[in-house]
């Protein structure tokens, strides 16, 4: 009995040793490659970055290693890493995590030629980061549960008794956080706080944008405050014709029509500044922008690029005059959420 | 009589080599404590007070405690009931049921949460969260309790019966007390696990300290309040760990030798056979069938089907390449802790045994950030190598290895080792030649259980794995995050498929230890 079990153990040990050897082999391979390749910390949707990197490597021959993660999680990690960060480039789904690094002087200035490719509204004033693509805040709504004519004129109108248990919001989402700051900038702190208190009292909070979008599609709730591309990613997965939800755009410069961006910057600590600058330049070039908008339902940062998605034309969005640089690292949003009892 | 219940007299200190062996895991456990302390202190005394006395803190505290206690109670009830039915009754196909009952551990929490949130929005509530998490984590109770039931001496039950006690009275008076250490350890594991749970709550509408910590890290950077909330989480784990320690104090159950125990014939279920069988089927359907159906549904409706299939082999290799050596390291670190506490006792040994449970209540993100900070400043060359990731695994999962090892270590008689020493063996020699072979099945079991947990781990793997290494869990997350559920489905299914043989190995390891028929 004991003999048998010992033999099993030995056999397993042999298996485990093999696996351990594999682990260390993977490690040394990664180290060897680090000399010739860029390291990108990626919070943007994985397939978008994969498409962009493939196009970049094809064009320049420079390889890029990608570390995946949530944008804020990666920003926190880079802050802990400080000047020893292995990252050369940070590509974030939202602008505040990149702005947070810039605020801590962790980013280098981008080449002027690159910055000039992007409308000045969508680059950081100090030139340390730029927007890579844009999207619009929208209301996703279930067509069977609510009509467009019922929507208030402003996103502020949702914090209201009449929307009791009919409006979903995601207090942990970066884009929601940006919307709070936009309201604060446009209508004042008091208005932003009251809006949050109203949402807490009448709306329903979800733990993620995907969950809120799913709830609308499933008819659990009438409407949700999300980004336009969440609807498109569900539509792409199940087919446009089967969608039970649609998007409502506020327009007329309402904070509900806020433009948010994905953004990128180069780490000051990177020893491969030249190659990293090349990557950022490629990101806003026509080829780079095409690779991005082909893989996700976002608006190009560069005019003249066509998205394969049936996006509402950018010219019709009529967004409020709040730029990503105005939003900064949006740290005040958590303070406001805390005051409203949402965090 | 093959079980000795002894009331321990004076606690005797572990020998020097054992004390030395407990130091590395203890050192590792203290690292996140230091980090969280440092970061919290940045808030300043006024900040600390204002953070802790907010109304929201109370709200989160209530939610966290209700969720954790609800799930623990549910898991104890279901885990113990299933363990008793599967181990002690004349149920057909018991070996198969053992695997079925353990396999929910292999379901990624996110998949279970998505599955149930899709069934009905009712499950997005606190009650729903308790239900979902209970059926996902009950194996953490089921496994140690069923091991204890199998190793139990029948004499107590026979005496109880002969005194005219009925089945229920015998169960509560004679069976349950013997299973109490296993039940207590399992309950503590579930409780602290729930404090740190995040993935399963991502699609539900329940907020706890851990979801709040994620929120702080999401909306703010180098957040002191997130660190403070982590301190509260650890403070919650303390009374739990202490209470469980009280529960087992002064008790010691061991068998003399492996071969001397008899087993009771299985309890005939009679008319209850069909209801019990149906109940087990229902449990498997709830905990495995519903998530599997969801994976199937994703494949069926999704346009992204087949995307990322080139990643499947690298992801399997990544999962195995990280989880196998990781499991070896964690189990090696856990072994001295368990030995010091089971064999020797004394305050230090008990502290060493319990401290990992306090860290177990911390979310993976906090552990990963702590290791980022510490390794980049003090051990830069190893940062983002598999080594630091294995350290993170140890910090996160030591208690699971401890609870898996405990049963076999408790049953290995110290007297035999003492005899060997009396015959002239060195302490280490006696341990290696007498005790180690006896606990090998337990070690194999702990390894398999660890591999299960490590394959599911997400946050620390994302942050600390060597760059470019993908695992099944990171690929599920990555595709689901992009809304490509059909692309995520094969990876989720593979997690289950790769896990099943491990669970088989795990349960067989236990069977070898106890089934002496």
Q: In brief, what are we looking at here?
A:
The complex is a heterodimer of chains A (about 350) and B (about 525). The N and C termini of chain A lie far apart (about 60 Å). Chain A is α/β, with parallel strands linked by helices.
Characterization of this structure:
- The complex is a heterodimer of chains A (343) and B (517).
- By secondary structure, chain A is α/β, with parallel strands linked by helices.
- Chain A folds into two domains: 29-134 and 262-312, D-Maltodextrin-Binding Protein, domain 2; 135-259 and 318-339, D-Maltodextrin-Binding Protein, domain 2 (3-Layer(aba) Sandwich), CATH 3.40.190.
- Chain A contains 13 helices and ten strands.
- Chain A has helices spanning 2-33, 46-60, 71-81, 95-103, 112-115, 174-187, 189-202, 209-217, 228-238, 273-283, 286-295, 324-327, 332-339; strands at 37-42, 63-68, 89-92, 129-142, 167-169, 204-205, 223-227, 245-248, 259-266, 299-300.
- In chain A, strands 1, 2, 3, 4, 5, 6, 7, 8, 9 and 10 form a ten-stranded mixed β-sheet that branches.
- The longest helix of chain A has 32 residues, at 2-33.
- Chain A is globular.
- The relative contact order of chain A is 0.18.
- Residues 1-7 and 12-35 of chain A have low confidence and may be disordered.
- With 517 residues, chain B is an all-alpha fold.
- In chain B, helix 3 (55-88) packs parallel to helix 6 (126-137), helix 9 (167-195) packs antiparallel against helix 11 (224-248) and helix 17 packs antiparallel against helix 18.
- The radius of gyration of chain B is 23 Å and the shape is globular.
- Chain B is built from 21 helices and two strands.
- A two-stranded antiparallel ribbon of chain B has the order 1-2.
- The interface between A and B is large, with 77 and 81 residues.
